[in-house]
Amino acid sequence: MIDVSPDPTSRLTTALSGVGTGYLVVVTGAGISLASGIPTFRGTDPDAVWSRDVMEMGTRQFFMQHPVESWSWYLSRFDHVLDKQPNPAHTALATLERWHRGRGGEFLLVTQNVDPLHERAGSEALVKVHGSADRVRCVETGCANAAPAGSLPRPAEAIETFRSSPSASTLPTCHICGGWLRQHVLWFDEFYDEHRDYQWLRVLDAAARADLLLFVGTSFAVGVTDLFLSAAVKRDVAALSIDPGAADTPHRAVLPLPEKAEELLPAALAKLQSTA
Prior knowledge:
three-stranded antiparallel beta sheet; alpha/beta
């Protein structure tokens, strides 16, 4: 059930309460991390990453041809991402998970972001469908540290050696096979089912069974949001979008809540907890 009142907090709390013990699925995008100081990708802020060259450089093809440039490019961005902390929107979603599961409901948070802020905020039922900036993996086929299941933490010492003197001879390499290490993220010329950590089957199941969809900070510009939106329309599942630009939702089936997530989500959770 969706509240028809104009108050976004009331609309959100009514929807969250109304799902009962059903399956609540939250899908987050880059907008949720903007308040933590991480630029969006397709947004209009001056530092939006996709306003430049990520479509070319964020590919396996570019890495294999220019590994030094690829590593240098990602370090310049991931160093900035990995030193950030969760904002109130991340914390509120972790609280929402505990609240909903505490009353017997099923919950899943699917994030398109590679930053570690949802984990740091305490989210547990989490799918990082595009990978994670704090991990790497081997590029060599058949290596235990490579796809479809392998990954390892960023090797701090090897990264510092490369940073101090970027070259082919200082590229971070796999301790098992000696192959190049790469970012543990989904590149534009790769597929969701290429690595188990992306949990694509779990994502497909969530789209097929969700009883309520909550989009937070997403521009509906990539395949994951298309998947969930199409499923919601087909199954007539209620969907809401929290984003300052949410008035421009891609389908009339999505209820826009044009507010900042770091303000609306904590307010909604406080209201839910006060009436529990």
